[in-house]
Design a protein that fits this description.
glycerate kinase activity; Glycerate_kinase_RE-like; Glycerate kinase, domain 2; Rossmann fold; transferase
């Protein structure tokens, strides 16, 4: 009887892409169980790696130049399949593109994200998925809307980009917004549940992660408040209500701007699993292997391994996970639907070596999984071969 394994890992941040993780796991599985059938399906949670997951599932790359987080041109890409476009904010205005400090926290813009959405609309997209993890900006999505036709003005005319500039915002004109937005399905792929403003909002919670000091956080909060007020004066439907909505604070307030243009917010991993046809690929599968670099309590709140395990469980397919390290106990893992965890630190206690040699170590973990999960089948095959 042939063993079927579906590999659905996320990236190991700082070490391997999701595709590379899957490839190394596949190599280890095939070495330990030569006739295993392996389906490699790299996935993501809506942040970095979302476009890669779509491309691995058969989408086509669209490459272009767009505005980076600090206004510089960057080469980037998004993925398309028919009239569906998948856009990843981290790939155009991502935090990893800047050196986070007070100045970059104030200047960073979401304009490039809006340019990608505009480009997709002009190519005929009718559904646009926006994955917003890993953003550099705290501009309330003002840069994104500006790229889509909104006009922001201050005391001296057109307002510069960036959350810091919003403290001088006087008026917003939405009459020039792209007309195709009204007939396009926008999906906000995000697990962040923060509102836009306040102590749990975009500036207060995520501003420091983007380099903002206490003064910058205060200014960014002030700017976001002026942004909401200006939009309300401009007649934007639900301007104040959306600011308090779950997920409005995602990506420095890009979540808020997406809600303003009618986006539906969904869990990032759920969106990616739908895009990649995960359910369909579970047919006949004996085991799912998922994973990410660090499997911890944060993983229990919408991260890839738990989302994969939950989806697999609906088809009664067991799931195990690989990771660099884990801090979860047995009860937490069971509650998340993960039957076992295999960590790189189990085979190599030196964390630096785990990061540098993640690929070969993952292959060793795959061999361990075969020994633990399929040893009986392996023994039967050896016996049959000896007859």
């Amino acid at each position: 009887m042939t063993t079927h394994v579906l590999l659905a890992p996320d990236k190991f941040k700082g070490s391997l892409t999701a595709s590379a993780v899957a490839a190394h796991l596949a190599a280890g599985l095939r070495r330990a169980l030569p006739d295993v059938e392996v389906d490699e399906l790299p996935v993501a949670d809506g942040g970095e790696g979302t476009v890669e997951a779509a491309l691995a599932a058969g989408f086509t790359a669209v490459e272009l130049s767009a505005t980076g987080p600090l206004g510089e041109p960057v080469r980037t890409r998004y993925a398309v399949d028919g009239t569906t476009a998948v856009i990843e904010m981290a790939a155009v205005t991502g935090l990893e593109m800047v050196r986070p400090d007070d100045a970059t926290a104030r200047r960073a813009t979401s304009r490039g994200l809006g340019e990608l959405v505009h480009h997709a609309l002009m190519r005929g997209a009718r559904t646009v998925v926006i994955g917003v993890g890993g953003s550099a900006s705290t501009d309330g999505g003002s840069g994104m809307l500006a790229a889509l036709g909104a006009r922001l003005t201050g005391p001296d005319g057109e307002l510069p980009d960036g959350g810091g500039a919003l403290v001088d915002l006087a008026d917003v004109d939405l009459s020039g917004l792209h007309p195709k937005l009204a007939s396009t399905t926008i999906i906000l792929a995000s697990d962040v549940d923060n509102p836009l403003l306040g102590e749990h909002g975009a500036a207060a919670v995520y501003g420091p992660q983007k380099g903002a000091d206490a003064a910058a956080v205060t200014d960014l909060e002030h700017g976001l408040t002026r942004w909401v007020d200006a939009l309300a004066r401009a007649g934007a439907t639900g301007a104040r209500e959306h600011a308090a909505a779950t997920g409005a604070g995602a990506a420095g307030g890009v979540g808020y701007a997406c809600l303003l243009i009618g986006a539906e917010r969904r869990a990032g991993v759920e969106v990616v699993l739908d895009l990649t046809g995960f359910d369909r690929r579970l047919d006949g599968v004996d085991l799912v292997i998922t994973g990410e670099g660090s499997l911890d309590r944060q993983s229990l709140h919408g991260k890839t391994p738990v989302g994969v395990a939950e989806a697999a469980a609906t088809h009664a397919v067991p799931t195990v996970a690989v990771c660099g390290r884990t801090t979860l106990d047995a009860d937490e893992l069971t509650g998340a639907g993960i039957e076992a965890v295999y960590a790189l630190t189990d085979v190599e206690p030196d964390v630096a070596r785990c990061i540098a040699e993640a690929g070969p170590l993952l292959e060793r973990l795959a061999e361990r999984i075969v020994a633990d999960r399929f040893s009986a089948r392996t023994a039967v095959r050896h016996a049959e071969g000896a007859q």
